[in-house]
Amino acid sequence: MKNNQVISVLAKKRSRNLKIMLALTLISFVLFAYLPGESQDVTFNFVLGDEWVIIQSWVIGSKIGAYSFSALSALFLVFAFLQARKGNKLGVSALAYCLSVFIAFMCWAAAGAAISVTGLLQGGLFLAIPLVFGSLSGLICERSGVINIAIEGQLLAGAFAAGVVGSLTQNSWAGLLVAPLAGALISLLLATFAIKYAVDQVILGFVINVLVIGLTSFASQRILTTDAARWNSSPIFSTIQIPILSKIPLVGPIFFSQTIIVYMLYVIVAIIQVTLFKSKWGLRMRAVGELPVAAESVGIDVNKVRFRNVLIAGLVAGLGGAFFTVGSSGAFSRQMTAGMGFIALAALIFGKWTPLGAVAAALLFGFADQLRTVLSITGTPIPSEFMVMVPYIVTIIAVSGFVGKVRAPASDGIPYKRGGSH
Amino acid sequence: MKLIAKKAILPLIAFGLALFVGGLVIGFTDSRVLSKIGSPISFLKIFASTVGNAYLALFQGAIYDPNLVEGHSFLTGFYPLSQTVVNAAPLMLCGLSVAIAFKAGLFNIGAQGQFIFGAIGASYVGFHYELPIFLHVVVAITAAIILSALWGGFVGLLKAKTGAHEVIVTIMLNYIAANFLLWILGTSTFLRPGRLDPLAPPVKDTARLPRLFGDNYSVNVGIFISIVVAFLFWLLLNRSTWGFKTRAVGANSSAARTAGISVQRITIGTMLIAGGLSGLAGAIHVLGFQYELTSDTAGSFGFDAITVALLGRGGPVGVVLASLLFAGLRVGGTTMQANVQVPVEIVLVIQALVVLFIAAPGLITRYIKIKNLESGQEMASKGWNG
Fold first, then answer.
1. Could you write out the DSSP letters of every residue in A31-92?
2. Where are the membrane-spanning stretches (chain A) (predicted)?
3. Residue at which a domain ends, from A57, A91, A112
4. Which of B17, B32, B384, B385 to mutate to test the interface with A (most CBs of A within 10 A)?
């Protein structure tokens, strides 16, 4: 009986998704293909550096392109429909569908311009890196049962520490080493107040952000700008081309022609994904985040596990902060994280509190941001301000439960008292 | 009186401590101070004078500056106080917006976005329509309140109908509002003729709030409106059925539900009011002080409001006093930066520390014994799913 209900809920969701997809295809036909006046050529460039060349570039008329990819999306929609009839998941056909609609969109939005596809994806990854670090920090905290609104502060502290130490020592490695510690220091504040003093974690995170923004901006104004050569001119990491892999068209320049920080990120993502679900550490983390009473009943010190994990989360976000200074620009500037900590939080939520989900969401948000920049240069019918809103809007849609049920770990944000009385 | 003293003691100690720590930060980042680190006595001397001068400049920039008097009446020295009060009015209203949400157990981080929509509404009515003198202000303020109440109420609606957590939704809506403001300032309706930068046409004279002490002092009736609203806030929460229900929901929503109170309606209603309050703040700022809408109109009112509500312990008197204090710090901080080159951001540090010390009474009472301490109920923890 219960099983049937589950299936019918899934079926309902699927049929709603199919309806949304149908509507999108129609919009794509009308808005991207039918309505525009005359057709202009769109050029997609694929080669960025010295990778092996398969296709140099591809030129297509904007109208014909929009028509063909809208048609392609209709085809994938039919596929998806047939899959749904059989009761299968929509996964692959839905992905292919989204890609077709997106290309149709690009044909419309970039009519008469040239788009570097590889550059677009590379830039998207670049912008997503701090988001991924940040959302992983949030993940470790929140899976352990501590809400982390202070991601912004952790990133900023990491950026500041890496920038200053990197400058003073003229060694980017020293900066990279210090950044995680700075992030962990912020985490120490978060953990102490959240766990020891049971302060509301949302308020706490907010206040910590204000504190870090205040301190780093103050120090930046008072010290860094007075003698920038000494305090604020860190050497930066150069990109490391991974032999052979970096030569692969499209993939190479995007993923394997990066700085050490990005390669560390790949490793961290893999470690967290595996350990969260396969190790004792991950099991304990999930236990204290979901049902701390049960965890304590088998002898786990809930608050100790939480405290340690919040510190680990700080290390991760702090390292991500280093990306802003020693990883890219070399100099620290006031509030240079510019709200990315909050988009990272959004990515965590949009990714349903799972590592791969958070990474995917962060990549999507980074890509959306890069797309906005690219399209604002080539000129596009959509105001760039609305493109900026995309991550925020999808997050609201996600938490409102329109795209499946998004649920936080059950005890996320609730302080634990020994004996489980809360 | 005793009650007030009891409520005020923790905030006062917290503020004192925050000033002290802020002083340490100022002192230890000063190159002249650090150069004397070898000799303890002169080090302490220059340390104290550096910090003292900074805080003196802060005071002069916030309340009374005798340097302004020269040749004029001694009243001229109160010019900074006028600036402080002007900035306190919107901060007060935003603080009340956050505070009323706290009463219903909601955390409204969205005051910033609601403020922006209020400012947009007031600005549009203010520059676009020709209306008689008193009516114009009323219409502009009404438009502001309606727009922002809808923006805030949307959060309550989502929370009530889908369970979407208000913190996440308001954070996202703040960014959306900020970008919406940028966009609308670029549209032909809002673009000031002959200008290309994001700047709306000036608000017409008929829509401006009257000033209280002549043209030299920008203090206007906005502060009275804010204080009256603070009184209404108290009345609503403590002398009405709706207020009782709101407090019941805030104290324990499942108990309130069992008692037959519609938590959904309270949630939506509270967020409507919270939005309206922040929107009123935006209107007062635009109609009373700035007279034009810019991309930076909202400043950081909506964010400072959260610290104001926390320092004010969620009560109207507390919020009024806290908003005056933080507005003074902001305004004075700018003078401090100009006069003694201590960056205004120290104010953020002080604000954050005050709230941190208050949020964790255990931290202070560990070292200082306070009798009959009222702990911060409004900061009791709830989870994402709560």
1. IIIISSSS--EEEEE---SSSPPS-SEEEEEHHHHHHHHHHHHHHHHHHHHHHHHHT---HH
2. 20-37, 57-82, 94-115, 121-140, 147-168, 174-195, 202-224, 255-277, 310-332, 338-365, 386-403
3. A112
4. B384
